[in-house]
């Protein structure tokens, strides 16, 4: 008979090791696929806050893609990982996202008050500046395709990506003037705005898609902006139910879409970036063909003076192009 604890019976520690890992090991295993999200210095945290500010502005300026800006800053994949993994490693992800969120709120506030005012005064010049920044940043996105084979399926993905945002702008211009903005608040409008919030979140994590263009397409951009006032809130307090539904859909979409796209980039990185490059170029086209800028062209065609808007726009476009490309070159030197 073998003595207890001898060779005939497994040791308690061996039994524990053969089973499931302890909670600490399980937690580490779940977050093993996340990159290092810690900021090494204050400069990195400031860059993340600046990224957030640009994303906040992107929500207001027609055609600007927040995800494309994240690629320029070199934080796109970390941003996806932090949002998609928020329930796996809450503390690490939340600390990474905090500067981005604060910058986003600041950018949204500046965009809502200052940029909207400028768009009212010289819309073409403002859009041209952001278009130059987007086009100048494109090489940072295209760098992800270096050394990759240009196969037919990948080129088709590029073409499809190019066509989607390029078609979204004209669709918003020439679509019927109907709007999804409801006359009253009920179950159906609330469910519809949860879905709309989800789609807006998708535009924030897919490079090349614009939340502004989407909201214009469904006729909700102007009503949503107009609803943000004390007078409107006093008259229609039920609008806060729509805000809440948008927020629920947006947050759910942000987490789920970030997780899906993050996995796609891990498993099919090269094909995904062919589509991303197409989307980014398509967003450049959509910036000059959307309902707001179309009204500018219509005014010019009807005889409105355009020199004070057109030529500053050309100058700002070139300045934005040069500034963004200088940032791309600096980013490339930093990676060497």
TrEMBL record:
Residues 10-30 have a biased composition (Basic and acidic residues). It comes from the Bacteria. It holds the Pfam family VCA0040-like. InterPro entries: VCA0040-like. Keywords: Membrane, Transmembrane, Transmembrane helix. The chain crosses the membrane at residues 48-73, 94-118, 124-142, 154-173, 185-206, 213-233, 239-258, 270-290, 310-328. Residues 1-33 are annotated as: Disordered. This is DUF368 domain-containing protein. It comes from Candidatus Borkfalkia faecigallinarum.
